[in-house]
């Protein structure tokens, strides 16, 4: 694996030299000791051929040559026009769906191998020229024998070895960083790379993408906010995906959106609402929402609807993480820095011995200047990043499960401000978060939690019985006598009957809710008594 990483490093170095990316680096305002380094680079000692390419084109071509992981990085950067010069951002946008395609005949061969049939047996029409091409796959337009217009997505050949090389190098860097730097250990770089490894390999499995698309479609069934194309499962395979062809306007085609009089303010606000709905309502969010994967329906431009494709990367959060994020955002935008500090400590992300007053003061020092600006000018992504940077000074450990969320949030915010520069992201998100918080503590939600706990009673009773048996019997591993097994079976049947009866009473509602707890409670008490008596 180390040899593989060295080979990949040499490949990266060759690409850097070919496109003279070191010129871009040394054009930045660097410390003098780094500027001196350029004279120690051997390839700068000799005359070189001038590249007739802009700096943005050189960067795009370099990322393109280096493969999927680097292309993904360029796609993320392309959405942050607030961080990049205009010429570089324009070039990186081409990485979203204009990566050079691979040979069409090879594409046809791969599709036929996966489907086990000739193209003509499955499709009444198949366009050999690809409709679009991206870092991991390319797409062809087609028509099924039954008449439906579809797109056929096929994985690029030979990706796994390249990805394995990049990941090997990333793991070496991550492990080295953890060994030499205490600050790096707080960031858990190995865990982050491991999560990314799982994500990128999952993206190579198109059956997983099809399942993700079906789930996302169910979550937004009938919604005016988002439409997800239908998956044709009969023709889906690990390296081939067939789904409904959609017709819409790419979300970054601002001229066409303006020509059809699209309500840009509503479009930007609905993008924010979709993100928070996925994260907090469904805990299932599209985590690759760069502009190449997002279109706008041409129907009802005064009430625009998004269309999402490419669901290869999705993320989810635990209820604890959801609650933590929502409470932090509320406290932060109310400038309740003490509450923000307390939430970090309570969540265990910051050591319990952290001094609350000092942590609160540090957060205030970093964040207070932000609120001197109007809310519409506050970058949500920068707020989270600054918050985490401050917490790291107090030994906060980065949570790898939030990496996809931060990446998606940066994409959404960059896109929203591009569509509607006056977007007030907080005022757009606040009503949704407030409603979600109210629903979390509503009687219906509390009753659901109680019922969920109630369903665990038989399991808890068994655990309690087993624990007491181990404590009271020195030969707990010996097989029990037949009469013990019979008594245990009787007890479990009785307890199961009580559980079913209790569940029925609880589901009945009304005054029976209180009665529903008694049968199971009595049975558990009887069970514990029998165990102790034994």
From TrEMBL:
GO terms for cellular component: plasma membrane. One of its GO terms (biological process) is regulation of ubiquinone biosynthetic process. Pfam families: ABC1. Keywords: ATP-binding, Cell inner membrane, Cell membrane, Kinase, Membrane, Nucleotide-binding, Transferase, Transmembrane, Transmembrane helix, Ubiquinone biosynthesis. ATP binds at residues 131-139, 153. The chain crosses the membrane at residues 24-41, 515-532. Is probably a protein kinase regulator of UbiI activity which is involved in aerobic coenzyme Q (ubiquinone) biosynthesis. PANTHER family: CHAPERONE-ACTIVITY OF BC1 COMPLEX CABC1 -RELATED, PROTEIN ACTIVITY OF BC1 COMPLEX KINASE 7, CHLOROPLASTIC. This is Probable protein kinase UbiB. It comes from Pseudomonas moorei. The gene is ubiB.
